[in-house]
Amino acid sequence: MKRSLRLYLIIILLMVCPGVTIGADFRDVEWGMSMDRVKSIETLKLKEQKDNCLVYALRLADLDTVLTYHFTEGMLTSAEYRIGEMRMNTTLYVSDFGKIQTLLRKKYGEPTTYQFVADESGACLSHGGLTIISLWNQPGTEITHVLTGSPLRTDHTIWYKSKKHRDIERKAEERKVLNNL
What we know:
Blueprint: H1 2-16, H2 35-41, E1 46-50, E2 53-60, E3 63-72, E4 75-83, H3 91-108, E5 113-118, E6 130-138, E7 141-149, E8 154-162, H4 166-180
Antiparallel strand pairs: 1-2, 2-3, 3-4, 4-8, 5-6, 6-7, 7-8
């Protein structure tokens, strides 16, 4: 009786509040949702819309960040936070990475994989000699936190990818490459 009452209340809640999602995969959205559905749920102001992505700007952990939702064949398959805080001192990028890493650990626990890759030159981020990667395997979602550098750019990204839609993404990418041959 309690179980059917609970189910009935959830159905009514979803009918009255269509923006409410249960069991969201990322933020308040679920993998496989349409672009229109994600736009209706996301509360940030839309910065840009392209054929296969929605782009938003926000402050994440007090850092300038761009959030991009990626769609394949009309379905949400991945999302990324690209932290774009400009730093004159490259060691501050490592500090920012550590700050976000701590927050990700609080939310998801210890990463499944952690790699600190340095080249023979002494791991200088601004010369492309350092890459830090953390990976979390969550139910339905793979999360990758990456910091890498080159002489012209430092890239700090958090990727959220649907495990269920991996093959769709792979096949779409393969079709794109084959079309370019």
